Amino acid sequence: MRIGFNFTLTETTEMVRRMIAEGHIDYCELLIDNFLCVPPAELARAFDCPTGFHIMFSEFIDEDLDALENFATRLRPFIRDMKPLYVSDHGASFTHHGVNLFHLGELDYARDYDRVRVRVDLWQEMLGQRIFIENYPSIMEGGWEAPRFFERLMQDTGAGALFDASNSVCANLNCGAPLEAWDKVIASTNHFHVAGYSRAVNPPHIVHDSHAEELAEDTLAFLRGRRHIFDKPDATITYERDGNIEYDSIIADLRRLREIFTSGTEERQDERAIACAN
Amino acid sequence: MNEPSLARTDRELFDVLTSPSRILDYPPNSRAYGRIDVSLRAYWHSTFDICPELLELSGPDGMTIFAPFMEWAREQGVRFTWSYYLWLYRWLRQSVFRDRLGDELLISLMGASAARWAIRDRGAAHGLAIGCAATPTFVVGWKCRSLSAGRQVELVELDQPIAVGDAFFGFFTTPGSEIAEFPGWRSLPL
Fold first, then answer.
1. Which of B13, B19, B35, B113 to mutate to test the interface with A (most CBs of A within 10 A)?
2. Does B37 contact A111 at a Cβ distance shorter than 8 Å?
3. Whole-complex ipTM
């Protein structure tokens, strides 16, 4: 498992370079749409490690087609020149009747399937690239339907899942959707996210993916318990932190991830062999 | 496990995610209430964390500005694009706070809008300028054009207030890394 960190704004450039130099991360995930005005050659030189691309605001499910093609036209040179480990995007609603949702909305997995499928096909064609779609940290009941939605979408479009482990933990805590329901999705993809979440003070103590805290013990336990399906050759897991950017705290989490995915190698190979046999 | 929700899917709540009044239609201990609250907090923090000067007008919880502005914005069809800080200023000008508005707050909100455009816009333009009929200062937001510079917001001082057409605010975008020409002011998008 390769472990990475998300790079979203230039303010953290030196910190990310230090993480690379000290061997804490193996790659860097760029929130690529923030850097489309930077010359590709400069961006390619920025970090001495491989990169992944995470797209934040393509809004590929709902965006006007001309605007989406324009966006793709400017993104393709970066994909061509930098050859990222993966290109990922979001399976979520960014607007409602044209109004921007500052906390993104969850898809209606039954009602939205057909149009999402069409747009995933189109977006992959526009980018000339397989894309990996991130799952949503459900608050409402959508969490129950999300795993099957992703299984169908992957099968029908050839896209991958960017499986966010802590988002599924949020969904589990909010609506009770079992983590085991994601096993097929986890086993079928190589690319993962993980982050800290926060819990509301007042009942019903809604949990949301704040990216501002250290990893919760239940998230770490989920990774440990399912590492035989998470961990594969060429797999990546990006640790996201967008708030409370404290170097030592981030490094502590990166070490926790490293410990999970490097300890017990022989035991893990046995687990994988058993999983394959089953 | 939480109590059963009054709505099953997230989409059923989309209509009320910007409404500090309609959240009260839901029991405070319901998941639907919690979901709407998460949404409202995102708007609140995007407003007051970026422009803390607003709290000097409203008091520490911001609600004397936030609640009526959000309802007014719903009525007006404000879409919470980069321009919403400017719509907030327009609302302030016709609110009970209208006699307490100074240039500092105006420039702060213009800067917030320019910064939001620079981080959120996905079009090809590199920069966006915002002018206002009430000040000779206009604000320019630049997207990240190099890792060493990052995203930038510049203030440009003129000798006298700018004529921005019939509107109070105007804007234009620039395709390159500097303002090479003035294409004329455009009116504010919702």
1. B35
2. no
3. 0.94
